[in-house]
TrEMBL record:
This is Homoserine kinase. It comes from the Eukaryota. SUPFAM superfamilies: GHMP Kinase, C-terminal domain, Ribosomal protein S5 domain 2-like. It comes from Asterophora parasitica. Pfam families: GHMP_kinases_N. One of its GO terms (molecular function) is homoserine kinase activity. The keyword Kinase applies. Its EC number is 2.7.1.39. Belongs to the GHMP kinase family. Homoserine kinase subfamily. GO terms for biological process: threonine biosynthetic process. Pathway: Amino-acid biosynthesis; L-threonine biosynthesis; L-threonine from L-aspartate: step 4/5. The lineage of its organism: Eukaryota, Fungi, Dikarya, Basidiomycota, Agaricomycotina. Residues 68-152 form the GHMP kinase N-terminal domain. It catalyses: L-homoserine + ATP = O-phospho-L-homoserine + ADP + H(+).
Length: 360
């Protein structure tokens, strides 16, 4: 006899141009975990989870449950609730459609899957806001994880915490997700830091359902960490006063409502998806980025609404109501001139994560 449940987490596209670390969109590519928990495992010895995996990232993902991001996050949640280890003889099969390191939120999805895995295994029934606290201890920008958890077009901020809570929320990642010893047993030493309550806050914006997302996905990986390193450590006073921050704030304010309007207005949206905070710096890592975003416009490509870098890249996100193939194939030509090959997909904006218990 066993208990079986499925966890399904969508891909996400963060930023949507001007909303750096603020907005995210959940998209119809999924990370799916099928979890089997034996109800009466052999009593003799403890057996750690057995992981199997198919799909995107299969050639690089660790199958050791103490090294794999999803299971390490699940163990973090369990240990914060005084549960020292996974149930014995657990089997977790992952089927993944979200490519790694492309700016489509694969790590955010893996973190949310881990939080939901811990929550469901231990039947903790934590509310969404508390699940988000745990996710934010690992992935410290809220845009991807919030959209992956709650779904749709979402804006989020991190609350200003008091000194004690700020310290608790800023512990090094190594303490949240420690390197577990290779001979991992039952005793992990002291418990990891429990997240303060109410770190992340969010709101779901409206979304006009005729708008689809064309993901133009270069065939190379760019880690989010590397794409954050190229951003300036300090923005100049000139940047903050006008050129950068006001430019982005003006556009973001318009964008959050413009994408809910029917029919969507391409002139308004194309301009509102421009950015000066992160894309100009990331172009050094993504050959062809400015050429694609400047040359594919609503005037040249009817149906296009706006175009930007997806998350930290290298994927380009084009929002459009039609003309998908022309948009993607013209982007392909521009990328090819830079020596970059791409794949593309038309994606829907979807709901958030789901956990489905199978009847046993
Ligand atoms: N399903 C998964 N299971 C385990 N680890 C994952 C999974 N998806 C992503 N990761 C980890 O996250 C990394 C990619 O994260 P990141 O650089 O933030 O890119 P992005 O989130 O844009 O895809 C992968 O190299 C891998 O280490
Ligand atoms: N706001 C973050 C988003 C990273 O998204 P990912 O999908 O590339 O992980 C950033 O721009 O760095």
């Amino acid at each position: 006899m066993s208990r079986q449940f499925t966890i399904r987490v969508p891909a996400t596209s963060a930023n949507i141009g001007p909303g750096f670390d603020v907005v995210g969109l959940s998209l119809s590519l999924y990370l799916t975990l099928t979890v089997t928990v034996p109800l009466s495992p052999p009593p003799s010895t403890y057996q750690p989870p057995r992981l199997t995996y198919t799909g995107e990232g299969a050639d690089e993902v660790p199958l050791d449950p103490y090294k794999n991001l999803t299971t390490r996050v699940a163990l973090y949640l369990l240990r914060c609730h005084d549960i020292p280890s996974f149930p014995s003889h657990l089997h977790i099969h992952t089927a993944n459609e979200i490519p790694f390191g492309r700016g489509l939120g694969s790590s955010g999805a893996a973190v949310i899957a881990g939080v939901l895995l811990g929550n469901t295994l231990a039947r903790l029934n934590l509310p969404t806001e508390r699940l988000l606290d745990f996710a934010l201890m690992v992935e410290r920008h809220p845009d991807n994880v919030t959209a992956a958890l709650v779904g749709g077009f979402v804006g989020s901020y991190l609350k200003e915490l008091d000194d004690e809570a700020t310290q608790a929320a800023s512990v090094p990642l190594a303490e949240v997700l420690p390197e577990y010893p290779p001979d991992a047993g039952e005793d992990w030493g002291r418990n990891p830091p429990v997240p303060p309550r109410g770190i992340g806050h969010f709101v779901r914006f409206g979304w006009e359902e005729s708008i689809k997302a064309v993901a133009i996905i270069p065939r190379f990986e760019l880690s989010t960490a590397k794409a954050r390193e190229v951003l300036p450590e300090v923005y100049s006073r000139k940047d903050l006063a006008s050129a950068t921050s006001v430019f982005n704030l003006q556009r973001l304010a318009v964008l959050t409502t413009a994408l809910a309007r029917s029919p969507p207005d391409p002139d308004l949206i194309y301009e509102a998806m421009k950015d000066r905070v992160h894309q100009p710096y990331r172009k050094t890592l993504i050959p062809g980025l400015p050429e694609v975003t400047n040359n594919i416009t609503p005037a040249t490509h009817p149906g296009l609404l706006g175009i930007c870098l997806s998350g930290a890249g290298p994927t380009i996100l084009a929002l459009a109501t039609g003309g998908f193939e022309a948009i993607a194939e013209d982007a392909r030509k521009i990328f090819r001139e830079k020596g970059v090959e791409i794949d593309w997909k038309v994606l829907e904006v979807v709901g958030g994560s789901a956990v489905i218990e199978q009847a046993s």
